[in-house]
């Protein structure tokens, strides 16, 4: 009871008869008695506006968060791996100062972080998508830095643009007049390396029989290399079985190519002679105007660029030599660089046109400390799987 009702003598509520009350009259009474004559907007207008502003402010954060949450629920949460981003986002995230790659967006260049260059770069795409153009732009920047490069150039496009005679650049192509004299036995720093060189030339094939007819020529070739012959002498020995017999006499290899096992002997010597055809192409010192070259010496000085050139018609004959030279250079450059040595880039266009490179896997997985980046191009994963088998997947996961 209110004090006024108590003063009038009321002690309890009394329920009267039911009757209808007009809404308009009740509204007028509430407005006058409770809201002091104000309507709802006048009483709560400022509070409603403030509430609306707060809700809008919260929605600015809640909607993007809910959108991301929905994507996580639909696609899962990314722990690591590649992320699709625009060129602008790429540069904002990585803030790179290394090699620049032009994009379709006008005026925007993607820049790699300097630390990522040593993690290697792979360029994949079908013929005509612009792999060569991209490699040319990268080589231009490498040249501007004053660094060295080893360029596998099966189409001759890179050597036309970047060969500099005054830089002491070298063309490794026995069918080119600029090819220097190269003696394979001079690459040996010790006798044990002969087998490593032989493994680059004689490639394994499937099956046990294939392994025998690969490993045995490797052993014989490595044994012949220990005599440190000139290239011409080595080719002459490999072309005359009697010369080989004379040099393996008294070793375990004598029994393997015994004349008593004619079929086995012919198979081994036939495999051994395949490489002689490629070595026979190499010019003599007189034919190369006295110019000499060695992968071992070049790896120490790193003066000039190296171009391994050829044409489509010459590719089959030059493939063993090109593969050997690249493998030798990788082997020599796997060591941690000395103070003052230039960085040496490997730029290998159409990698699948080379033989299997035994040192290539090591260069990708272990070669970051040597700071000699590899840029390699290919058309599809299946190409490399044919050459490297199950190792292809591991190799392709290494480049940054």
TrEMBL record:
Domain of life: Bacteria
Main subcellular location: membrane
Transmembrane segments: 47-67
Alphabetical list of Gene3D superfamilies matching this protein: P-loop containing nucleotide triphosphate hydrolases
Membrane topology: Multi-pass membrane protein
Keywords, comma-separated and alphabetical: Cell membrane, Membrane, Transmembrane, Transmembrane helix
Residues covered by the Type IV secretion system coupling protein TraD DNA-binding domain: 111-390
GO CC, any one term: plasma membrane
Protein localization: Cell membrane
Record-given protein name: Type IV secretory pathway TraG/TraD family ATPase VirD4
Source organism of this protein record: Granulicella aggregans
Taxonomy of the source species: Bacteria, Pseudomonadati, Acidobacteriota, Terriglobia, Terriglobales
